[in-house]
Specification:
Its cofactor is heme. The chain is α+β, with helices and mostly antiparallel strands and about 475 residues long. The protein has a domain of about 280 residues: Catalase core domain (Catalase HpII,  Chain A, domain 1, Beta Barrel). Strands 3, 6, 7, 8, 9, 10 and 11 form a seven-stranded antiparallel beta sheet that branches. A hairpin with a 5-residue loop joins β7 and β8. The longest helix is centred in the last third of the chain and has 18 residues.
Length: about 475
Protein backbone atom coordinates (compact mmCIF):
# COMPACT_ATOMS: atom_id res chain seq x y z
CA UNK A 1 0.00 0.00 0.00
CA UNK A 2 1.47 3.33 -0.99
CA UNK A 3 0.64 5.98 1.59
CA UNK A 4 2.69 8.82 0.18
CA UNK A 5 0.16 9.85 -2.47
CA UNK A 6 -2.90 10.09 -0.20
CA UNK A 7 -3.80 13.80 0.18
CA UNK A 8 -4.80 13.79 3.84
CA UNK A 9 -4.36 16.85 6.04
CA UNK A 10 -2.80 15.72 9.31
CA UNK A 11 -2.44 17.97 12.35
CA UNK A 12 -1.32 15.35 14.85
CA UNK A 13 0.06 12.24 13.10
CA UNK A 14 -0.08 9.78 16.03
CA UNK A 15 -3.62 10.77 17.00
CA UNK A 16 -4.80 10.98 13.38
CA UNK A 17 -3.44 7.58 12.32
CA UNK A 18 -6.84 5.85 12.39
CA UNK A 19 -8.51 8.67 10.45
CA UNK A 20 -5.76 8.61 7.82
CA UNK A 21 -6.03 4.83 7.54
CA UNK A 22 -9.80 5.12 7.05
CA UNK A 23 -9.35 7.60 4.19
CA UNK A 24 -6.67 5.39 2.62
CA UNK A 25 -8.85 2.29 2.94
CA UNK A 26 -11.88 4.00 1.43
CA UNK A 27 -9.77 5.14 -1.53
CA UNK A 28 -8.50 1.62 -2.09
CA UNK A 29 -11.92 0.04 -1.83
CA UNK A 30 -13.35 2.55 -4.27
CA UNK A 31 -10.66 1.66 -6.78
CA UNK A 32 -11.29 -2.09 -6.45
CA UNK A 33 -15.10 -2.16 -6.31
CA UNK A 34 -15.09 -2.91 -2.62
CA UNK A 35 -12.70 -5.86 -2.71
CA UNK A 36 -9.26 -5.59 -1.14
CA UNK A 37 -7.48 -8.24 -3.16
CA UNK A 38 -4.14 -7.95 -1.36
CA UNK A 39 -5.18 -7.83 2.26
CA UNK A 40 -8.53 -9.67 2.31
CA UNK A 41 -8.02 -12.86 0.37
CA UNK A 42 -8.56 -16.12 2.24
CA UNK A 43 -7.33 -19.07 0.24
CA UNK A 44 -8.30 -18.39 -3.35
CA UNK A 45 -11.41 -16.29 -2.67
CA UNK A 46 -11.54 -12.54 -1.94
CA UNK A 47 -13.51 -11.60 1.16
CA UNK A 48 -15.88 -8.70 0.63
CA UNK A 49 -17.33 -8.35 4.14
CA UNK A 50 -15.32 -9.09 7.27
CA UNK A 51 -17.72 -7.44 9.71
CA UNK A 52 -19.48 -10.64 10.74
CA UNK A 53 -19.32 -14.40 10.65
CA UNK A 54 -21.92 -16.52 8.89
CA UNK A 55 -24.05 -18.48 11.39
CA UNK A 56 -25.83 -21.75 10.78
CA UNK A 57 -29.53 -21.04 10.18
CA UNK A 58 -30.81 -21.89 13.62
CA UNK A 59 -31.99 -19.71 16.47
CA UNK A 60 -28.76 -20.19 18.45
CA UNK A 61 -26.61 -18.83 15.63
CA UNK A 62 -23.97 -21.57 15.87
CA UNK A 63 -20.88 -21.19 13.71
CA UNK A 64 -19.98 -23.85 11.17
CA UNK A 65 -16.48 -25.24 11.54
CA UNK A 66 -15.98 -25.04 7.79
CA UNK A 67 -16.37 -21.23 7.67
CA UNK A 68 -12.85 -20.72 6.37
CA UNK A 69 -12.47 -16.90 6.26
CA UNK A 70 -13.61 -16.46 9.85
CA UNK A 71 -11.44 -19.33 11.10
CA UNK A 72 -8.43 -17.88 9.29
CA UNK A 73 -8.90 -14.49 10.93
CA UNK A 74 -9.08 -16.12 14.35
CA UNK A 75 -5.95 -18.16 13.65
CA UNK A 76 -4.07 -15.10 12.48
CA UNK A 77 -4.97 -13.21 15.65
CA UNK A 78 -3.23 -15.78 17.86
CA UNK A 79 0.35 -15.30 16.59
CA UNK A 80 -0.19 -11.53 16.39
CA UNK A 81 1.24 -11.40 19.90
CA UNK A 82 4.79 -12.50 20.58
CA UNK A 83 6.73 -12.61 23.86
CA UNK A 84 8.24 -9.29 24.81
CA UNK A 85 11.95 -8.64 24.80
CA UNK A 86 13.69 -9.47 28.07
CA UNK A 87 15.18 -5.99 28.41
CA UNK A 88 13.99 -2.66 26.93
CA UNK A 89 10.52 -4.09 26.28
CA UNK A 90 8.95 -0.75 25.29
CA UNK A 91 10.09 1.64 22.61
CA UNK A 92 9.64 2.81 19.08
CA UNK A 93 11.20 2.33 15.66
CA UNK A 94 11.65 4.03 12.32
CA UNK A 95 13.48 3.62 9.02
CA UNK A 96 16.21 5.80 7.62
CA UNK A 97 19.40 6.07 5.62
CA UNK A 98 23.09 6.11 6.41
CA UNK A 99 25.38 8.40 4.44
CA UNK A 100 29.14 7.91 4.68
CA UNK A 101 30.53 11.44 4.78
CA UNK A 102 34.18 10.93 5.77
CA UNK A 103 36.95 8.54 4.76
CA UNK A 104 38.56 6.94 7.82
CA UNK A 105 40.96 4.66 6.01
CA UNK A 106 43.86 6.97 6.80
CA UNK A 107 43.24 6.81 10.55
CA UNK A 108 41.90 3.31 11.05
CA UNK A 109 44.16 1.31 8.77
CA UNK A 110 41.18 -0.74 8.62
CA UNK A 111 30.45 1.26 12.28
CA UNK A 112 8.86 -1.24 29.83
CA UNK A 113 8.73 1.72 31.82
CA UNK A 114 7.67 5.32 31.44
CA UNK A 115 9.72 7.33 28.99
CA UNK A 116 11.01 9.74 31.64
CA UNK A 117 12.51 7.32 34.15
CA UNK A 118 16.22 7.58 34.81
CA UNK A 119 17.75 4.49 33.27
CA UNK A 120 19.94 3.67 30.34
CA UNK A 121 17.84 3.42 27.20
CA UNK A 122 18.57 0.70 24.70
CA UNK A 123 18.95 1.36 21.01
CA UNK A 124 19.63 -0.86 18.05
CA UNK A 125 20.29 -0.10 14.39
CA UNK A 126 19.97 -2.63 11.59
CA UNK A 127 22.00 -1.62 8.54
CA UNK A 128 21.28 -3.42 5.27
CA UNK A 129 24.60 -3.49 3.43
CA UNK A 130 25.84 -5.12 0.24
CA UNK A 131 27.92 -7.52 2.34
CA UNK A 132 25.36 -8.47 4.95
CA UNK A 133 23.37 -7.03 7.80
CA UNK A 134 25.04 -5.14 10.61
CA UNK A 135 23.19 -4.93 13.93
CA UNK A 136 24.68 -2.24 16.14
CA UNK A 137 23.07 -2.93 19.52
CA UNK A 138 23.90 -0.43 22.22
CA UNK A 139 22.73 1.99 24.87
CA UNK A 140 22.19 5.65 25.64
CA UNK A 141 25.22 5.50 27.96
CA UNK A 142 28.82 4.67 27.01
CA UNK A 143 29.21 2.17 29.86
CA UNK A 144 27.35 -0.82 31.29
CA UNK A 145 26.80 -1.57 35.00
CA UNK A 146 28.78 -4.83 34.94
CA UNK A 147 31.83 -6.27 33.21
CA UNK A 148 31.43 -9.94 34.16
CA UNK A 149 28.70 -12.02 32.46
CA UNK A 150 28.24 -14.01 35.67
CA UNK A 151 26.63 -10.91 37.21
CA UNK A 152 24.05 -10.50 34.46
CA UNK A 153 21.34 -12.72 36.06
CA UNK A 154 21.51 -11.02 39.49
CA UNK A 155 21.67 -7.61 37.81
CA UNK A 156 18.50 -8.38 35.83
CA UNK A 157 16.81 -9.64 38.98
CA UNK A 158 17.68 -6.42 40.82
CA UNK A 159 15.56 -4.53 38.26
CA UNK A 160 12.55 -6.77 38.77
CA UNK A 161 9.65 -6.04 41.07
CA UNK A 162 9.46 -7.37 44.58
CA UNK A 163 8.27 -11.00 44.28
CA UNK A 164 5.64 -10.52 47.01
CA UNK A 165 4.37 -6.97 46.58
CA UNK A 166 4.98 -6.72 42.79
CA UNK A 167 6.25 -3.20 43.45
CA UNK A 168 9.61 -1.66 42.60
CA UNK A 169 11.92 -2.20 45.55
CA UNK A 170 14.86 0.16 46.06
CA UNK A 171 16.36 -2.21 48.63
CA UNK A 172 16.83 -4.97 46.05
CA UNK A 173 18.29 -2.54 43.53
CA UNK A 174 20.74 -0.83 45.85
CA UNK A 175 21.75 -4.10 47.44
CA UNK A 176 23.12 -5.18 44.06
CA UNK A 177 24.80 -1.83 43.38
CA UNK A 178 26.53 -1.62 46.74
CA UNK A 179 27.59 -5.27 46.56
CA UNK A 180 29.33 -4.69 43.22
CA UNK A 181 31.54 -1.57 43.09
CA UNK A 182 32.01 -2.02 39.34
CA UNK A 183 28.52 -0.47 38.95
CA UNK A 184 29.69 2.93 40.27
CA UNK A 185 30.55 4.49 36.89
CA UNK A 186 27.17 3.59 35.40
CA UNK A 187 25.34 4.71 38.58
CA UNK A 188 26.98 8.13 38.44
CA UNK A 189 26.18 8.58 34.74
CA UNK A 190 22.58 7.39 34.88
CA UNK A 191 21.79 9.81 37.71
CA UNK A 192 23.43 12.80 36.05
CA UNK A 193 21.59 15.37 33.95
CA UNK A 194 22.84 13.58 30.84
CA UNK A 195 20.40 10.72 31.23
CA UNK A 196 17.14 12.63 31.07
CA UNK A 197 16.69 13.24 27.31
CA UNK A 198 13.37 14.81 26.42
CA UNK A 199 12.76 12.07 23.86
CA UNK A 200 14.52 9.54 21.62
CA UNK A 201 15.50 12.35 19.24
CA UNK A 202 17.68 13.96 21.90
CA UNK A 203 19.53 10.85 22.97
CA UNK A 204 23.14 10.00 22.16
CA UNK A 205 23.74 6.36 21.33
CA UNK A 206 26.82 4.29 22.04
CA UNK A 207 27.97 0.91 20.81
CA UNK A 208 29.63 0.78 24.26
CA UNK A 209 31.57 -2.41 23.50
CA UNK A 210 35.03 -2.32 22.01
CA UNK A 211 34.93 -3.69 18.44
CA UNK A 212 37.65 -4.94 16.15
CA UNK A 213 37.95 -3.38 12.69
CA UNK A 214 40.07 -4.91 9.94
CA UNK A 215 41.13 -3.32 6.66
CA UNK A 216 41.92 -4.88 3.29
CA UNK A 217 45.57 -5.34 4.34
CA UNK A 218 44.50 -7.50 7.29
CA UNK A 219 45.55 -4.81 9.77
CA UNK A 220 43.27 -4.28 12.72
CA UNK A 221 42.49 -1.72 15.39
CA UNK A 222 40.12 -1.57 18.34
CA UNK A 223 37.24 0.92 18.04
CA UNK A 224 34.23 2.27 19.89
CA UNK A 225 31.16 3.60 18.03
CA UNK A 226 29.41 6.83 19.03
CA UNK A 227 26.21 8.28 17.57
CA UNK A 228 25.75 11.93 18.55
CA UNK A 229 22.37 13.46 17.86
CA UNK A 230 22.31 16.57 15.65
CA UNK A 231 19.23 18.19 17.21
CA UNK A 232 19.39 20.98 19.77
CA UNK A 233 19.96 19.77 23.33
CA UNK A 234 16.72 19.08 25.19
CA UNK A 235 16.44 17.35 28.55
CA UNK A 236 13.61 16.86 31.00
CA UNK A 237 13.37 19.13 33.99
CA UNK A 238 14.70 17.02 36.91
CA UNK A 239 11.45 17.40 38.83
CA UNK A 240 9.25 16.55 35.84
CA UNK A 241 11.38 13.52 34.97
CA UNK A 242 10.76 12.01 38.40
CA UNK A 243 6.95 12.42 38.31
CA UNK A 244 5.45 9.94 35.81
CA UNK A 245 2.18 10.90 34.15
CA UNK A 246 -0.12 9.13 31.74
CA UNK A 247 1.29 11.17 28.85
CA UNK A 248 4.87 10.21 29.70
CA UNK A 249 4.30 6.51 29.11
CA UNK A 250 4.43 7.02 25.34
CA UNK A 251 5.89 10.50 25.12
CA UNK A 252 9.14 9.52 23.39
CA UNK A 253 7.49 7.24 20.83
CA UNK A 254 4.87 9.87 19.96
CA UNK A 255 7.53 12.57 19.64
CA UNK A 256 9.60 10.47 17.23
CA UNK A 257 6.58 9.55 15.10
CA UNK A 258 5.42 13.17 15.04
CA UNK A 259 8.80 14.53 13.99
CA UNK A 260 9.16 12.11 11.07
CA UNK A 261 5.54 12.56 9.96
CA UNK A 262 6.05 16.34 9.80
CA UNK A 263 9.38 15.87 7.93
CA UNK A 264 11.43 17.16 10.84
CA UNK A 265 13.76 14.21 10.35
CA UNK A 266 16.08 13.50 13.30
CA UNK A 267 19.69 12.59 12.54
CA UNK A 268 22.78 11.33 14.31
CA UNK A 269 26.43 11.69 13.33
CA UNK A 270 28.49 8.50 13.58
CA UNK A 271 31.98 8.75 15.08
CA UNK A 272 34.56 6.17 16.05
CA UNK A 273 37.38 6.15 18.60
CA UNK A 274 40.45 4.19 17.57
CA UNK A 275 42.96 2.31 19.72
CA UNK A 276 45.87 0.46 18.16
CA UNK A 277 47.08 -2.91 19.39
CA UNK A 278 50.15 -1.29 20.91
CA UNK A 279 48.02 1.29 22.71
CA UNK A 280 45.83 -1.52 24.03
CA UNK A 281 48.89 -3.23 25.49
CA UNK A 282 49.94 -0.02 27.27
CA UNK A 283 46.42 0.99 28.38
CA UNK A 284 46.27 1.51 32.19
CA UNK A 285 42.88 -0.23 32.31
CA UNK A 286 41.36 -3.14 30.47
CA UNK A 287 40.13 -1.67 27.14
CA UNK A 288 37.62 -4.51 26.88
CA UNK A 289 35.99 -3.63 30.22
CA UNK A 290 32.43 -2.46 29.49
CA UNK A 291 32.40 -0.25 32.60
CA UNK A 292 35.17 1.93 31.13
CA UNK A 293 35.34 4.58 28.40
CA UNK A 294 38.17 5.66 26.10
CA UNK A 295 39.40 9.15 26.91
CA UNK A 296 38.53 11.48 24.03
CA UNK A 297 41.73 13.40 24.68
CA UNK A 298 43.87 10.33 24.02
CA UNK A 299 41.52 8.72 21.51
CA UNK A 300 39.72 11.54 19.65
CA UNK A 301 36.45 11.09 17.78
CA UNK A 302 36.71 10.53 14.02
CA UNK A 303 33.63 11.37 11.96
CA UNK A 304 32.35 8.58 9.73
CA UNK A 305 28.88 9.53 8.48
CA UNK A 306 25.30 10.40 9.33
CA UNK A 307 22.13 8.43 10.03
CA UNK A 308 18.79 10.08 9.28
CA UNK A 309 15.40 8.65 10.24
CA UNK A 310 12.95 9.68 7.53
CA UNK A 311 10.22 7.04 7.40
CA UNK A 312 7.70 5.85 9.97
CA UNK A 313 6.64 2.18 10.06
CA UNK A 314 3.32 1.33 8.44
CA UNK A 315 2.73 -1.83 10.46
CA UNK A 316 4.35 -1.76 13.91
CA UNK A 317 4.03 -5.51 14.46
CA UNK A 318 5.75 -6.74 11.30
CA UNK A 319 8.25 -3.91 10.98
CA UNK A 320 9.23 -3.20 14.58
CA UNK A 321 8.00 -5.90 16.93
CA UNK A 322 9.24 -8.74 14.71
CA UNK A 323 12.67 -7.26 14.15
CA UNK A 324 15.45 -9.45 15.58
CA UNK A 325 18.71 -7.82 16.60
CA UNK A 326 21.84 -9.67 17.57
CA UNK A 327 25.42 -8.41 18.02
CA UNK A 328 26.56 -11.49 16.07
CA UNK A 329 25.48 -9.86 12.80
CA UNK A 330 28.58 -8.03 11.61
CA UNK A 331 29.68 -7.55 8.00
CA UNK A 332 33.26 -8.37 6.97
CA UNK A 333 35.69 -5.91 8.53
CA UNK A 334 33.89 -5.61 11.87
CA UNK A 335 34.39 -8.26 14.53
CA UNK A 336 33.98 -8.90 18.24
CA UNK A 337 36.63 -8.18 20.86
CA UNK A 338 37.63 -10.04 24.05
CA UNK A 339 34.90 -8.07 25.89
CA UNK A 340 33.25 -10.83 27.93
CA UNK A 341 29.84 -9.12 28.02
CA UNK A 342 30.00 -8.78 24.22
CA UNK A 343 30.73 -12.48 23.84
CA UNK A 344 27.89 -13.37 26.22
CA UNK A 345 25.44 -11.18 24.29
CA UNK A 346 26.35 -12.81 20.97
CA UNK A 347 25.35 -16.18 22.38
CA UNK A 348 22.38 -14.93 24.39
CA UNK A 349 20.71 -12.96 21.58
CA UNK A 350 21.08 -15.82 19.10
CA UNK A 351 19.46 -18.16 21.61
CA UNK A 352 16.57 -15.87 22.53
CA UNK A 353 15.39 -14.71 19.08
CA UNK A 354 14.13 -18.15 17.96
CA UNK A 355 12.24 -18.43 21.26
CA UNK A 356 10.63 -15.03 20.80
CA UNK A 357 9.97 -15.10 17.05
CA UNK A 358 10.19 -18.76 16.08
CA UNK A 359 12.86 -20.85 14.32
CA UNK A 360 12.41 -18.99 11.03
CA UNK A 361 12.93 -15.54 12.54
CA UNK A 362 15.79 -14.79 10.11
CA UNK A 363 13.40 -15.28 7.17
CA UNK A 364 10.97 -12.59 8.31
CA UNK A 365 11.06 -9.73 5.79
CA UNK A 366 12.25 -7.14 8.31
CA UNK A 367 15.17 -9.37 9.25
CA UNK A 368 16.00 -10.44 5.71
CA UNK A 369 14.62 -8.17 2.96
CA UNK A 370 15.91 -10.59 0.31
CA UNK A 371 12.89 -12.76 1.15
CA UNK A 372 10.56 -9.92 0.17
CA UNK A 373 12.02 -7.38 -2.31
CA UNK A 374 9.01 -5.07 -2.03
CA UNK A 375 8.83 -4.98 1.77
CA UNK A 376 7.71 -1.44 2.53
CA UNK A 377 10.28 0.74 4.19
CA UNK A 378 13.38 -1.25 3.31
CA UNK A 379 15.42 -0.71 0.15
CA UNK A 380 16.05 -4.10 -1.39
CA UNK A 381 19.66 -5.18 -1.54
CA UNK A 382 20.20 -8.34 -3.62
CA UNK A 383 23.18 -9.33 -1.47
CA UNK A 384 21.71 -8.23 1.87
CA UNK A 385 21.49 -11.61 3.54
CA UNK A 386 21.40 -12.32 7.25
CA UNK A 387 24.54 -14.07 8.33
CA UNK A 388 27.00 -14.53 11.11
CA UNK A 389 30.59 -13.43 10.55
CA UNK A 390 32.61 -15.51 8.13
CA UNK A 391 35.26 -17.73 9.64
CA UNK A 392 37.77 -17.22 6.88
CA UNK A 393 41.33 -17.29 8.19
CA UNK A 394 42.15 -14.48 5.77
CA UNK A 395 40.48 -12.00 8.10
CA UNK A 396 43.23 -11.89 10.74
CA UNK A 397 41.27 -13.61 13.44
CA UNK A 398 44.58 -14.03 15.03
CA UNK A 399 44.52 -14.55 18.68
CA UNK A 400 42.61 -11.65 20.07
CA UNK A 401 43.33 -13.53 23.23
CA UNK A 402 47.03 -12.73 22.72
CA UNK A 403 46.23 -9.05 23.22
CA UNK A 404 43.99 -9.71 26.21
CA UNK A 405 46.54 -11.97 27.88
CA UNK A 406 49.17 -9.21 27.78
CA UNK A 407 46.97 -6.62 29.47
CA UNK A 408 47.11 -6.16 33.21
CA UNK A 409 43.47 -6.34 34.29
CA UNK A 410 43.09 -3.26 36.45
CA UNK A 411 40.23 -3.66 38.90
CA UNK A 412 39.97 0.06 39.64
CA UNK A 413 36.24 0.75 39.35
CA UNK A 414 36.33 4.33 40.61
CA UNK A 415 38.83 6.42 38.62
CA UNK A 416 36.63 7.14 35.60
CA UNK A 417 33.54 7.76 37.73
CA UNK A 418 35.56 10.15 39.91
CA UNK A 419 36.90 11.94 36.83
CA UNK A 420 33.37 12.36 35.46
CA UNK A 421 32.14 13.83 38.75
CA UNK A 422 35.06 16.20 39.33
CA UNK A 423 36.13 17.20 35.83
CA UNK A 424 33.11 16.78 33.54
CA UNK A 425 30.14 17.88 35.61
CA UNK A 426 29.80 21.53 36.60
CA UNK A 427 28.38 22.61 39.98
CA UNK A 428 24.82 22.47 38.64
CA UNK A 429 25.36 18.98 37.22
CA UNK A 430 26.85 17.78 40.53
CA UNK A 431 23.84 19.22 42.35
CA UNK A 432 21.43 17.31 40.08
CA UNK A 433 23.42 14.10 40.53
CA UNK A 434 23.39 14.50 44.33
CA UNK A 435 19.63 15.03 44.38
CA UNK A 436 18.86 12.13 42.05
CA UNK A 437 20.91 9.62 44.05
CA UNK A 438 19.47 10.92 47.31
CA UNK A 439 15.93 10.58 45.94
CA UNK A 440 16.65 7.01 44.87
CA UNK A 441 18.23 6.05 48.20
CA UNK A 442 15.35 7.67 50.09
CA UNK A 443 13.15 4.79 48.89
CA UNK A 444 15.43 2.28 50.64
CA UNK A 445 14.00 1.10 53.95
CA UNK A 446 17.21 -0.77 54.84
CA UNK A 447 19.45 1.84 56.45
CA UNK A 448 22.43 -0.48 56.18
CA UNK A 449 22.13 -0.30 52.39
CA UNK A 450 22.08 3.49 52.57
CA UNK A 451 25.30 3.40 54.60
CA UNK A 452 26.95 1.09 52.07
CA UNK A 453 25.88 3.36 49.23
CA UNK A 454 27.25 6.45 50.95
CA UNK A 455 30.54 4.67 51.55
CA UNK A 456 30.70 3.80 47.84
CA UNK A 457 29.98 7.42 46.90
CA UNK A 458 32.71 8.61 49.27
CA UNK A 459 35.23 6.87 47.04
CA UNK A 460 34.21 9.39 44.41
CA UNK A 461 34.29 12.42 46.68
CA UNK A 462 33.80 12.84 50.44
CA UNK A 463 31.83 16.06 50.04
CA UNK A 464 29.58 14.38 47.49
CA UNK A 465 28.77 11.57 49.94
CA UNK A 466 28.17 13.98 52.82
CA UNK A 467 25.74 16.04 50.75
CA UNK A 468 23.76 12.92 49.88
CA UNK A 469 23.78 11.86 53.53
CA UNK A 470 22.55 15.28 54.63
CA UNK A 471 19.56 15.07 52.30
CA UNK A 472 18.77 11.66 53.80
CA UNK A 473 19.33 12.79 57.42
CA UNK A 474 21.83 9.98 57.66
Amino acid sequence: MNTHNIPVQVSNPPNDQVRVFKVMTESELAATNGVRHNGDRRGSQPVVDRRGSLPVSDRRGSLPVIQFPFATDVQRSKPARIPGRIVHTRGAGAFGVFEATDDISDVSDGAGPVDTLRESRGFAIKMYTDEGIWDLVGSSLPVFPIKDPALFPPFSQSLNRNPQTRLKDANIFWNFLTSNPQTIHHTILVNSDRDAPESFRFMDCYGAHTFKMINHRNEFVWVKFHLRYDQDIKTFDPEAANVPTVEQFNHAAADLFNAIATKNFPSWTLYIQIMTEEQARRCPFNPFDLTKVFSQKEYPLHKVGKITLNENPIDYFSQIEQVAFTPAHMPPGIEASPDRIFQMRISFYNEQQPKRLGPNNLLLPINNPATNPIFFGIPHQPNAFMQTPATSSSLVRRSISNVASNILLNVDDFTQARDFYKNVLDSHGRSILTKNIADSLARCTDRNLVGRALFMMSTIDDTFARRIGKKLNF
